Amino acid sequence: xxxxIRDSKPVHYLEDFAVGQKYRSTRLPVDAxxxxxxxxxxxxxxxxxxxxxxxxxxxGGLAASGWHTAALTMRLLVESDMRPAGGIIGARGxxxxxxxxxxxxxxxEVETEVLEVRPSGSRPRQGFVKFRxxxxxxxxxxxxxxxxxxxxxxRAVPA
Amino acid sequence: xxxxIRDSKPVHYLEDFAVGQKYRSTRLPVDAxxxxxxxxxxxxxxxxxxxxxxxxxxxGGLAASGWHTAALTMRLLVESDMRPAGGIIGARGxxxxxxxxxxxxxxxEVETEVLEVRPSGSRPRQGFVKFRxxxxxxxxxxxxxxxxxxxxxxRAVPA
Lengths: 159, 159
Fold this sequence. Notes:
Chain A is of the alpha+beta class. The first copy, chain A, has helices at about 5, 30-40, 45-50, 50-55, 65-80, and strands spanning about 20-25, 30, 90-95, 105-120, 125-135, 140-155. The interface of A and B includes residues 41, 45, 46, 47 and 68 of A.
């Protein structure tokens, strides 16, 4: 992360978001070492740790933990141009699926689309933006779909 | 992980799960270094990286990434007695919230409850178990709620 470059990107307040807006990330490669490192720390199951042991499992080979895919998705979002005022702060997820396994050698990218924009009923300075964030591999196949509302600052306080 | 000890725990097939069953994990401490390491790799935002910078944000101080909490929750589940046959394989999440921030010095534990058990309509060897997994801090306050269906193997194939 280069803070100077990042901080030069424009920040979006609730009023700047509109249904249908899309943001696309850069790409991030995933190798076997990264898959195993994450699994050792957070999801130590055979199909995330060892090629040989993974062969006889549901995945039929080494596959990234879904939570690793979720974490990589977050990194791609943070580095993208989708920059809510106040930061990317998850308020409520309502869908999280992993339609395909992430394999060693895959390259991930993220496309996120605004589904809904609404002010908070109780907090005049805040609102919620619901996004569908689809994580794609290098063949443009979805490997994760996340529908989540983020907490976003409003530009102006109503009088 | 000690594979021998882990493998000595009983495995649960779809037929072994019933609505209302609960499993509880051991505890896992979270310190500032772990919060910053995760954030550097996956969620490099000021409120996850630096105490000083975090003070003026929504969180008012250093807080763990929600995806870090999710990953730690997974580790606690993998190490728990909730051992579905075939492994812990997420099929579909339908709720993910972080009601409270995880702070340096917190100790997390997980309670998971079976909400629903159903055979797969298309795959005779598989079914789905829906769990509500609540991650608690040392004051027994929820810091994450996840409702997710797991793919679970069936014991017997119907004739």
